[in-house]
Amino acid sequence: MPLKTPAEYIESIRALQRTVYLFGQKVENTVDNPIIKPSLNAVAMTYALAQKDEYKDIMTATSHITGNVINRFTHIHQSIDDLVKKSKMGRLLGSKTGCCFQRCVGMDALNALSMTTYATDQKYGTQYYHRFLKYLQYVQDNDLVCDGAMTDPKGDRSLPPHKQEDPDLYLHVVRETNDGIIVRGAKAHQTGALNSHEIIVMPTIAMRPEDKDYAVTFAVPSDTEGIIYIYGRQSCDTRKLEKYTIDQGNALFGGHEALIVFDDVFVPWDRVFMYKEHEFAGHLVERFAAYHRQSYACKVGVGDVLIGATQTIAEYNGIDRASHVKDKIIEMIHLNETLYCGSIACASEGRREEPGTYMVNTLLANVHKQNVTRFPYEIARLAQDIAGGALVTLPSADDLNHPEAGKWIKKYFKAKSDIPAEHRIRILRLVENITMGTAAVGYLTESMHGAGSPQAQRIMIARESNVKEKQTLAKRLAQIIKNED
Ligand code: SF4
Ligand code: FE
Q1: How many whole angstroms from 395 Cα to the centroid of ligand 2?
Q2: CATH 3.30.70.330 applies to domain 293-475
Q3: 323 vs 23, 143, 148, 311, CA distance in Å?
Q4: Domain boundaries in the chain?
């Protein structure tokens, strides 16, 4: 049965035996760890919504390999409609969780791999596409979460992989055996690392012949021997340890990132999808990056939550009818929907590529992601403007619950007389969470650097734009050149 329930998903992650470090200690059970659990809940939502009739059209798809109904996160896009539904799925999940739900990186890696393995086979007569399809069917049949792992630590950014003083700063092949390869290195800032069944490793940049040992792509079960996870801190992460949910802002959901170390990890040949074909590293990176830039429809969903929270606090404070407040809410909506336009547009303008995979419009996907590096910051600024200073001066839930202090909080933190102070505090804590707390990692910093930092998009925008053609248009109208030129 391809579709797992959320409970089955959580138990399948519990079964993994991994080496995980958090706050200087080994974590045996990540599933019940209070710091990690909200991020697991966010991924579980990708399973929960796929079970619901009202969301089935968005959350599920028909496998082009087996014809089975599968979770869309394991699907290879077969049409423009699939691409558009992917964008809608991102917004939907962002709005249900208010954070990064982590599963997109694997979906984007699978789709990029479908094209790169095929193209490599065309050139070299290799068997990567066949291997990939077998692997894909395993992922679809078992409804697995794949972590698409691209970002190497990179060391000295001015040097290519083979010139680094420490050769492990880009993940590379150290040995080859009859059965497979042994790899060493690390992948940094890996979204959803601990909530994934599989890790799909890809190169992080285009490679030259001298870097061919670094041109390697493969998939391994996330509990393979030699893999070590070191959990990344998020601002205000210890709030998740507080006993009252009120102080957590978004107690149920969150995202996470980790450093994944590959300490001489063995990969069998049937899970290797690129091996030293260095000229296909860039092919894969560009496709993955464009897909993942489309995926940033997720931030539109988080924006929906933030706009809802901001309107609510405006009403609780009695300022919702002020014209400047109304106008600021309109501005937030305008920016958020502009982001949505970009994600839908790059999907609608997609095209069919070999071997039948639908690819987003690369220029529009990069323009979309460039907007994502900016607009959430402005939306967050407007939310903080309307929320007021209480956002950063609220007392703790312990004080709210204290018989003496609580009396004063309930009296002096109340705004509109029919709204309990606790409701006002709860909504302010949610705004705090999204604009300054753990979810701000996903809503702001990840918007900046996830799927590539802003400059990476500008390089692609320059490459994909035909400025010469625009010049010809202008020169014709200015009658510098004739129509037929
Ligand atoms: Fe998906 Fe968005 Fe998280 Fe990236 S940041 S994994 S696109 S939810
Ligand atoms: Fe991301």
Answers
A1: 33
A2: no
A3: 47, 49, 46, 13
A4: 293-475
